[in-house]
Amino acid sequence: MKNLENIPSYILSSIAGVASEDEKKQLSQWLEMPGNAKAYEQLKQVNEISSDLTLYKSFDRRKALQQVKGAIRVNKRRRLFGHLQRIAAFLFIPLLIGSLFMLRQYFNFQEGVNNGPLVQEISSPPGTRTHFFLPDSSEVWLNASSTIKFPSAFRGNTRLVELDGEGYFKVYKNKNKPFIVKNENVAVTALGTAFNFCGYADDNSSLVTLQEGKINVQNNHTKEALIALPGEQIQFSKSDGDFTKLAVNVDDFTAWRDGRLVFNKTPLSRVVSNLGRSYNVDVELVGAGVSNYRYTATFTDESIYQVLELLKLTAPIDYSITSRESIGDGTQFSKQKIKIWKTSKNSQPM
Q1: What's the rounded Cα separation, in Å, for the pair 2 and 60?
Q2: CB of 43 closer than 8 Å to CB of 11
Q3: 50, 99, 226, 233: most buried, per Cβ within 10 A?
Q4: Where are the domains of the chain?
Q5: CATH assignment of 260-342?
Q6: What is the pTM of this model?
Q7: How deeply is 159 buried, as exposed, middle or buried, from its count of CB atoms within 10 A (0-12, 13-18, 19+)?
């Protein structure tokens, strides 16, 4: 088996107590990723047991097992006392082998299996926002009801992540390895930049808004590409395939990172989608034409009831709210359900 070179040097340096300030920063960011803290503690334990973590990097499971079996065969012929003295050692070696093998699996170092990095997934539940760092030190904010997938280490010529939902990316600059974020409709390529990507699977459109730097946005269906500069947004429409660029107020599309919902002549259909994810409620628009109303407003700390009342003041609409109901054994509850309709007929939908 080849030497295992995939443990980052800053991890080994830290465990050995010789990490530089830059390596300490890299380790801190790496430890924020799910599962990494546990793996790090296991590596420290292995180092304490073996007194040399290089054992891990040159560990040959098959050879070690053969050595254990050979030792057992030799000791069968020795006196019982001598055999008992070695039982602890024979038990310890498989335990150490097992620990090393489990850690190797965590870093995806499996002999005869794909040696590529593990795919990690982070999800931000409805009503929450998540902030973290990617393996290359790029910074990410993930909006409510969003999921991102990325490798545990970026290898090859690109840094590729997949997004379902909305994320703000502050990309660590590496001109030799472009950073790519994609969903089923568009792919965004950047070197060192900051942009917002909104592309929920159940939305009709994908919106890419650039704050800093420069990006290339490709239509995955036609392979057409557009270049965006700061203050510009690339839009893709699933319903008609439109792929366009326009100037926007970037803050309208990035304010969610600070807990603000900003709408600027936004169709009610998009408003209620954002409200549903931000407040973890199901919102239904009832009747023709109601989705075409447009709103301009900013919400920060308002409850869903206050938001609905403010919307009601600016357009001829009304709403109803169904309380949450217990599910199954009563430990879980359904989402609140909200219906919004036009008030011109002065009647509430059934």
Answers
A1: 8
A2: yes
A3: 233
A4: 9-106, 119-254, 260-342
A5: 3.55.50.30
A6: 0.66
A7: buried
Closest of 205, 256, 194, 201 to residue 228, by C-alpha: 194
Strand pairing class (336-342; 317-322): antiparallel
Both structure tokens of 199: 């592309």
**CB contact set of 236 (below 8 Å; sequence gap of 6+):** 185, 186, 205, 206, 207, 219, 242, 243
Judge if 119-254 and 260-342 fold alike in CATH terms.
Answer: no
Query: Around Cβ 176, how many Cβ atoms within 10 Å?
Result: 6
- Beta bridge partners, 211, equal none
pLDDT tens series, the chain, 350 aa: 333 345 677 787 888 888 888 888 888 887 877 667 777 776 776 666 554 444 444 445 455 555 544 554 544 444 444 444 444 444 444 444 445 544 554 554 333 334 556 888 999 999 899 999 999 989 999 999 999 999 988 988 999 999 999 999 999 999 899 999 999 999 999 988 999 999 999 898 999 999 999 999 999 999 999 999 999 999 999 888 899 999 999 999 999 999 999 999 998 989 999 999 999 999 999 987 888 889 999 999 899 999 999 999 888 899 999 888 777 776 777 888 999 998 865 444 44
DSSP state of 287: S
Tell me the three-class secondary structure of 186-251, residue by residue: EEEEECCCEEEEEECCCCCEEEEEEEECCEEEEECCCCCEEEECCCEEEEEECCCCCEEEEECCHH
